[in-house]
């Protein structure tokens, strides 16, 4: 069983920055691709970014490319999402995810409890 615990959400003004963290346990970190999804009220779940188990490759949704950066610390078993130039449309609950093997944009194997990000205009 994989446990994921997110932190770092909050309220920020448009144009500001936030860094989300996700502490993972119960797995061999390098066997899982890590990622972030988000869901805004009344909207479908949306892929945000993922990083391969070894951290060698990343992939982003078009809506966040150039503004968000995903990274991982294999020593701390933690994955990060650095968010810059935030927009009101980035407001959502952000979920850390883990997928065994290759990363996916259409789903995941495990998900954390989520952290709220609110961007005011």
Describe the structure.
The chain has strands at residues 3-7, 10-13, 18-25, 32-39, 46-51, 58-60, 68-73, 78-83, 92-100, 110-111, 115-120. It contains no helices and eleven strands. Strands 2, 4, 5, 6, 9, 10 and 11 form a seven-stranded mixed beta sheet that branches. Strands 1-3-8-7 form a four-stranded antiparallel beta sheet, with no helix packed on it. The mean pLDDT is 94. Strand 7 and strand 8 form a beta hairpin. Helices cover 0% and strands 52% of the residues. The radius of gyration is 13 Å and the shape is globular. By secondary structure, it is an all-beta fold.
Beta-strand fraction estimate: over 45%
The coarse silhouette is: globular
| Rg result | 13 Å
* Percentage of residues in helical conformation: under 10%
Order of helices and strands: EEEEEEEEEEE
Alpha carbon gap, first and last residue = 40 Å
User: In terms of per-residue confidence, which ranges show pLDDT below 50 for 5 or more consecutive residues?
Assistant: none
Quick tags:
mainly beta, globular, four-stranded antiparallel β-sheet
Secondary structure layout plus pairing:
Layout: E1 3-7, E2 10-13, E3 18-25, E4 32-39, E5 46-51, E6 58-60, E7 68-73, E8 78-83, E9 92-100, E10 110-111, E11 115-120
Parallel strand pairs: 2-11
Antiparallel strand pairs: 1-3, 3-8, 4-5, 4-9, 5-6, 7-8, 9-10, 9-11
